[in-house]
């Protein structure tokens, strides 16, 4: 993560700045660029529009690290409702879930039970579940739980972050499970003991891991990046790929590139977050690009 990203991320944790962004029209306008809305119905409407334009979708209910079983149960119920909406509206979509939102920080078995319930329902609907990767405190548990549920159910994906130093070993381990693997760079502030902190090193790591992933025959790669050089690398590797792969990009980020990839005939899934707990997600988007910060400042001061 760059110095800019670290400064922005740290600054956005202050309560006054959080109130300024969440309580003003410019802050909500910025959030609307990256978040589909506060409600499932709003997200379903946008997902339908994206499907009509040729995009696949992954619906993500925003929220992380609940600390009581009632909240974890509520997240499970909301995701079950999400799967019901995918079915009822005939969406070409899956769901992305965070294990801490399903109770991992309370009880590992609770998280396994909850994600297994979602996987079973997703199979009935004809779709799949992807397990998001969170910060490094939960990486080992996330990888272990993915292995458990993928062996038990199949039909499961996982996100891996190229900047983590453990990812090459995780990639080799998880390819053997024949699921789908979303490869992204990583968006959390991590210590240098566990993660690469120089952009060039992260890019090189992503490129090496992408080559391994695209060469694997029995896995479904998801190339999750907006970096044009890495997108071009995936394009170069695509003719030699024997099986399916898709690009994945965030809602509201580099839309012209998204359109171009779809026009070229590449499957592209839009990661579509929704829900009232959008501030942590927005801070990661603001920390990624100075342009997002300046958009908010210009809007705030007219």
Average the pLDDT over all residues and give the rounded result.
Answer: 90
Q: Which sheet architecture does the biggest sheet show?
A: 8 strands, parallel, barrel
Q: Strand pairing plus helix content: what structural class? A: alpha/beta
Give the helix proportion (percent range).
40-55%
How would you spell out the order of helices and strands?
A: HHHHEHEHEHEHEHEHEHEHH
Assigned CATH class of the largest domain: Alpha Beta
Beta-strand segment tally? 8
Strand-residue proportion: 5-15%
CATH architecture descriptor of the largest domain? Alpha-Beta Barrel
- Uncertain segments of ≥5 residues (pLDDT<50)? none
As laid out across the biggest beta sheet, the strand order is 1-2-3-4-5-6-7-8
The geometry reads as globular
In DSSP terms (H or I, runs of 4 or more residues), the helix count works out at: 13
Q: How many structural domains are formed by the residues?
A: 2
What's the end-to-end separation, in Å?
30 Å
Q: If you compute it from the alpha carbons, what radius of gyration comes out, rounded to the nearest whole angstrom? A: 18 Å
CATH fold topology of the largest domain: TIM Barrel
